[in-house]
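Worked problem 6 (solution included).
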Amino acid sequence: MEFLNKTSDINPAPKPKTRTDIRIKVIYLSIGAAFLTFGLKFLAYFLTGSVGLLSDAMESMVNVVAAFTAFAALTFAARPPDQSHPYGHEKAEFLSSIVEGTLIILAAGVIAWEGGNRLFDPQPLQSLGFGLAVSFMATLVNFGVARVLLHFGKKEDSIALEADGKHLMTDVWTSVGVIVGLSLAWITGWLWLDAVVAIAIAVNIVFEGGRLLARSLDGLLDRALPEAEQTRICHIIEKVISRQAGQVTYHGLRTRKSGSYRFVDLHLLTPGSWSVQRAFECIEEIETAISAEFKNIRILVNTQPTEDPRAYNDSWETTSPH
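Solution. The predicted structure is:
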């Protein structure tokens, strides 16, 4: 009876320096845009005295902190596995998005407080036309940077970049709401609209921040890959073992994701009479086929003899039909 355990990183990530450079350059853009838009929006608030524009400026201040947090997380996550962290450092990206989600919700609380106070004590607005123009410029900057972040977040499979991009898109819609609300206040003279806009923004920000926190915490808890991806992996494995004339099966498939990496482990059941070399070749074929479909994937295969009843027992709930 022979056993073979093999871990694989058939399709490793590019060299850490190259991959880090791409992500860090994008984060540099985010940091620069955060400072620029915060300055523009605070200028708009200073000129008008609008609490709606103040709330918009405060969210941009959060963007500054969030961008620096993402920078630190991506730098740490790009480190290769070491003796202390043999599975790598990619989960740092989830921590970054948790910090960002928390900051978003705290900012929403301050915005709601200011909006509530102004609702009962409306203040005259000044230089509203110029202030709205400045805010609109900042919104265009945020929109452009958000599209870049979302593009590279998807391309690099980075939750930190994606979280930063989604946060900026929230900021864009927040700014659009402020501009529309204050334009109505300017036209109608209803100053209370300024406070209502601020409170509505706060509610929206809490919702977005909560969704980001939930997704990040779920990632830290090693949620399995999406069902569609698991199905693809199962089909790949079954296609390979179907060429073994019914001698090979598998079970105990487990999956998870950490940062941009996917992890897969399973039990491969082969005849006890097979040599280590033959089992190894079957594993290689499975790994190569899976890696052709998924980038940045690490695979652990444990081989067991089909004749031994103990080989069919798992200590966890299986995700495969075997």
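Discussion: Strands lie at 4-8, 249-258, 261-270, 297-305.
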